[in-house]
């Protein structure tokens, strides 16, 4: 889905963050680079396979999984990416304790969160160049 490979010399230390890579021109591309560095595999899911969902988050030993519905527009894709990364980074126990080890991310944007995973997602989206009022979505067990 992301199709982003890290260029030599873009290591994330001393100002060489993937967020500063001039080849990453969109917030979604920058967030894909963040996911890559965090060991999160991002992939597309056919929209008809997940009606009403924007994506899913899951975990395997050693990496996170973030599936995004393939019909999301660029802005919604960036916000759901930020939210999924935030869930895997800040609430991994919520994912691992889900009955099937996956959580669904709803398509409906929730009001801006004042704390927690949604607030972290908003900060990540803003850092990656996405000006959004909220990057908080409903989570549900699959």
> How does the overall form come out from the CA principal axes?
globular
- Output the radius of gyration: 14 Å
Order of helices and strands: HEEEHHEHE
Total helices: the number is 4
Can you describe this structure?
This protein has a five-stranded mixed beta sheet with strand order 1-3-2-4-5. Helix content is 32%, strand content 24%. The chain has helices at residues 27-37, 74-90, 92-96, 116-127; strands spanning 40-45, 53-60, 63-69, 102-109, 137-141. The protein has one domain. The radius of gyration is 14 Å and the shape is globular.
Please name the defining characteristics of this protein.
24% strand, 5-stranded mixed β-sheet, alpha+beta, 142 residues
Provide a quick synopsis of the model.
The chain has 142 residues and is of the alpha+beta class. It has helices at residues 27-37, 74-90, 92-96, 116-127, and strands spanning 40-45, 53-60, 63-69, 102-109, 137-141.
Write the layout of secondary structure elements.
Layout lengths: L26 H11 L2 E6 L7 E8 L2 E7 L4 H17 L1 H5 L5 E8 L6 H12 L9 E5 L1
Parallel strand pairs: 1-3
Antiparallel strand pairs: 2-3, 2-4, 4-5
Helix pairs in contact: 1-2, 2-4
């Amino acid at each position: 889905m992301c199709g982003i490979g890290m260029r030599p010399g873009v290591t994330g230390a001393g100002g060489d963050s993937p967020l500063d890579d001039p080849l990453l021109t969109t917030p979604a591309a920058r967030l894909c680079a963040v996911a890559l560095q965090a060991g999160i595999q991002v992939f597309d899911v056919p929209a008809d396979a997940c009606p009403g969902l924007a994506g899913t988050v899951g975990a395997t030993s050693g990496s996170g999984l973030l599936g995004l519905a393939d019909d999301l527009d660029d802005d919604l894709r960036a916000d759901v990416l930020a939210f999924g990364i935030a869930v895997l980074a800040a609430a991994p126990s919520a994912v691992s304790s889900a009955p099937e080890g996956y959580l669904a991310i709803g398509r409906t944007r929730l009001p801006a969160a004042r704390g927690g995973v949604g607030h972290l997602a908003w900060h990540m989206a803003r850092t990656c160049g996405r000006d959004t009022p909220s990057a908080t979505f409903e989570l549900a067990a699959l």
